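Review form for a predicted model. The reviewer records the input and the model, then writes brief findings.
Reviewer: anonymous (R2)
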Amino acid sequence: MNIYQNILLAKQQNKKLLAVLIDPEKMDIQNIPSFFEKVHQSITTHIFVGGSTDKNQLTEPVVIAIKKATKLPVILFPGDVQQITNKADGILFLSLISGRNPTYLIEQQVKAVPFLKNSNLEVIPTGYVLIDGNKETAVQRVSNTKPIPNTAINIIVHTALAGEFSGKKLIYLEAGSGATVPVGASIIMETKNQLKIPLIVGGGIKTKQQLTTAFQSGADLVVIGTAFENDEYFFEDLKKL
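Model under review:
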């Protein structure tokens, strides 16, 4: 069973999934083995690797080190085509559908095709929706797009549905790395009620309560990154039962 089929099955069984997002620019390769000792004691089900930038081309060596440390699926979450490596298991083929910059709607995707068609990566088409988290994020700066206001629930839901109607297999609601306010419960709930495909939620989730709220509101998979970067002991709150 492939990665996407597993996500679909978990959705059908109402099994909640948790991804740890690792930014290659912020992860010391030497610390990966000890980091994953904590990951494996937690409820983590997936590993995402990526960031808005990768100036030192660290994605591939970080992915190689991660693959040595875990059997969890490793999925690329690339900021651009330079962050793609066939050493991972899959890739979120992201389209920034909340923005209107063609570079991140389709141009980066076209550039990735020559690599992806010759790789063994599982390609998962994903509609990426950036929502205002009360802080300018790296995604905003790099993509030169503005997030959707977190009060504009109808626009957020319609954007997510436009992604589904155009063939995306996942919708990713993102408040941005380091957001001071995570995606709100009402946004998650309303989007979940309208979608037929799995819903990913990330950005600004720093506590177990915020994680629980995201799950209870309807997120099928929650992504946490900055919270673990700042405090690995956060894993203690997320230990397996």
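Findings: The CA atoms of residues 172 and 192 lie 11 Å apart.
Further findings: The chain has nine helices and eight strands.
Recommendation: see findings above.
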